[in-house]
Amino acid sequence: MWQRVPFFRRKKEIKLEPPHNSIGVVGFKGGVGKTTIAVELSFLLARRGMTPSLIDWDPYNARATLRISGRPWEVECGAWNYVAGECPEDKTNIALKVKVRREEGGRPLELFLVPPTRRYAEVTDKVLEALGNPNFPGRAERANKLARRTAALGDILFNDFQVPSWMGLQAFKEIVSVTSRWLIVVVDHMPQSFQQTEHLTKTLFGSNVLALIVNKVPSALLSNPKESKEIMKRAKLLQHSIGAKVIAIVPFDAMLYDQSTKGGPVLVAASRDPSKIRSLKILDRLLNVVIDEVTGGKI
Questions:
Q1: CATH number of the domain within which 37 lies
Q2: Is 3 domain-assigned?
């Protein structure tokens, strides 16, 4: 005797596409200058008369928020509060409009900023679960919605990610993939950093790497022909391996790292004059590639 078995159609999975004008700044080692790259690219973009937006995804240190705002903050909903489902999903005023002074004077720069949490280092139990649980419900959908709303406020959205050690690799991969159309991978000049970056970039992301930045390279190494050639050789091998479109070798400039952001705000939030700092000149040239790729040459 035949028995009719009900047929259940498998629910079709909908791929969450990140905003077309979004960039994630990632790295797999602490202290390589990821936040500085994200913040300074935002400032350089604003100097061109464009409007950057930035989401700070570091719930513990919030260096980008402190660097940009220059003071403590208190908001109704931070990025991770939104992703964890602690805020109404239709909330539209999550981004702060911030004005940052120019070092050389003149009209302040304007950008949109989404802090990681409601207040500095205020990490709730639900945010902790969203960070660590590989199957946290709705995380990807809410992160994607947040990125889309923030990206719509300006010309280019920068996502500032910290090293994935404070969250599960699955959660890290998920958040990056649904919020960032392109990636900027930041590494220092040490061989071990290159090896780690190659493995994790290929394992987690595979493609869409726009730029590889070898950051904070001591000037003494760059002025040594042998050392400089070796750094470039390693950088080109890594570029080829991860599929980065361009390389930027950025020297260490103490002026960009003389503001302490750990545990408190910087004294003065300011955009440094790019004409006076070698590393900013290099980043400004890189920005030409970023704008062209991200906007399709429409801006």
A1: 3.40.50.300
A2: no
In whole angstroms, give the CA distance from residue 254 to residue 1: 82
Residue 213: pLDDT band by 50, 70, 90 thresholds? very high
State the virtual CA torsion across 269, 64, 61, 182 in degrees, nearest 10.
-170
Statement: residue 148 has pLDDT above 90: yes
210 contact partners, CB below 8 Å, separation of at least 6: 23, 182, 183, 184, 244, 245, 246, 289, 290, 293, 294
| Angle (deg, nearest 10), helices 125-132 and 169-179 | 90
For the chain, what is the radius of gyration of the CA atoms?
20
Instruction: Give dist(CA 179, CA 63) in Å, integer.
Output: 19
CA pair distance 207, 229, nearest whole angstrom? 26
Q: Is 81 domain-assigned?
A: yes
Q: Residue 31 belongs to what domain range?
A: 22-295
**Cut 0.85: pTM above it:** yes
The model's pLDDT over 31-64, given as tens digits with 9 standing for 90+, comes to 899 999 999 999 999 999 999 999 999 999 999 9
Give DSSP secondary structure letters for 207-232: S-EEEEEEEEE-HHHHTSHHHHHHHH
Quick one: pLDDT at residue 242? 96
At residue 32, the pLDDT reads: 92
User: In Å, how far are 22, 54, 103, 145, 232 from 152, measured between CA atoms?
Assistant: 10, 12, 28, 11, 37
DSSP 8-state class, residue 267: S
Structural domains of the chain, count: 1
Q: Residue 288: is its pLDDT beyond 70?
A: yes
Is 13 domain-assigned?
A: no
Buried b (16+ CB within 10 A) or exposed e, 228-244: eeebeebbeebbebbbb
Confidence of residue 91 (pLDDT cuts 50, 70, 90): low
pLDDT of amino acid 265:
47
Is residue 143 in some structural domain? yes
